Amino acid sequence: MRALRATNLIIAFIATTAPIAHVLEMISKLTLDGPLWLEIQQHLYRGWGEVFGPVEIAALVTTFGLLLASWGDRAKRRAYLIAVVCYAGMLAVFFVFNLPVNKAVSAWTSETLPLDWSEYRLRWEVGHALAALLSIVACVVLLRRAVSRLP
After folding, report:
1. Does residue 117 contact residue 34 with C-beta atoms inside 8 Å?
2. Is the torsion defined by CA of 17, 23, 28, 34 positive or negative?
3. Checking CA distances to 38, which of 74, 104, 134, 148 falls within 20 to 30 Å?
4. 107, 42 in Cβ contact below 8 A?
5. pLDDT over threshold 70, residue 150
6. For 80-133, what is each residue's pLDDT tens digit?
7. What are phi and psi of 101, to 5 degrees?
8. 28 three-state secondary structure
9. Does pLDDT of 27 surpass 90?
């Protein structure tokens, strides 16, 4: 159980990094013109999903494992359940907000950029902001649970 908690905390921290990075970039990215924004989306973020998608899934799985292992303890169960819901929410946000934009953007060129491209940008940014919020809540809950166990 101790190893699972330690692994979970490391994964929880890593799962916050990409969404927070996106939020920190948001103000600047919202000022970009369409062709430059498209270039960034198609090139800068290449490969992020292959790294951070599995991390978010691992956060959900390890937190769910902690939830099951501590089901008899109400305080632990509540904390782990909140974190599980947050990680499941992160994945739902990705499929609702980010994946449709990623799929659309992958087929665009600067010449075929639609007139409503900024609506796609806003949807993508909002998705990452929601994911950041959920990942922070989950990480804080998990950290508080771990700290409450310290002497």
Report:
1. yes
2. positive
3. 134
4. no
5. no
6. 999 999 999 999 999 999 999 999 999 999 999 999 999 999 999 999 999 999
7. -70, -45
8. helix
9. yes
Rounded distance between C-alpha atoms, residue 16 and residue 136, angstroms: 6
Lookup: tokens for 110: 């600067």
CB 130 within 8 A of CB 6: no
Listed in sequence order, the residues at least 6 apart from 97 whose beta carbon sits closer than 8 Å to its beta carbon are: 123, 124, 126, 127, 128, 130
Helix, strand, coil percentages for the chain (3-state, nearest 5): 85, 0, 15
Domains, the chain, ordered by start: 2-147 (1.20.120)
